[in-house]
Amino acid sequence: MANSSYGSREGLTIRPAASSSSSEISLQIDPINADLDDHILGLRGHVRKLRGVAQEIQTEAKYQNDFISQLQMTLSKAQAGVKNNMRRMNQSIIQNGSNHLVHVVLFALGCFFLVYLISKFSRR
């Protein structure tokens, strides 16, 4: 029975649909027994509440999108800063590495010269 599966309120009755394969329900309103004004006012109140919730959701979504945009900008700036610092560090390592190599070569030459002098004076 269609009437028991969907239920009805006072003043509303279910009409059989034009085709039996349709999943739509047609309601016929009986204006004599209807207490529909209260229901309509209640539905309007629900619609107002839903509109308020939708506006709050929209406001929050805008706030979250702005926050994400700011985070993306901050991340881009940080990434550019890290790139610049890595470039500077690489240049510094190359420069200090070559300075270090010069120091090692000079130290080795100094050691060879010292060993040469020691061996020259110890033979006499």
Brief characterization of the structure:
With 124 residues, this protein is mostly helical.
Describe the structure.
The protein has 124 residues and is mainly alpha-helical. Helix content is 75%, strand content 6%. Strands 1-2 form a two-stranded antiparallel ribbon. It is rod-shaped, with a radius of gyration of 44 Å. The protein starts with a helix and ends with a helix. The model is unreliable at 1-8 (pLDDT under 50).
This entry's quaternary arrangement is single chain
Low-confidence stretches: 1-8
* Proportion in β-strands: 5-15%
Strand order of the largest sheet: 1-2
**Per the principal axes of the C-alpha atoms, what is the gross shape?**
rod-shaped
Structural class: mainly alpha
Order of helices and strands: HEEH
* Mean pLDDT level: 80
What is the CA-CA span between the terminal residues? 128 Å
> Please, how many helices?
2
Number of strands: 2
Instruction: Report on the biggest sheet.
Output: 2 strands, antiparallel
Assign a percent range to the helix content: over 70%
The rounded Rg comes to 44 Å
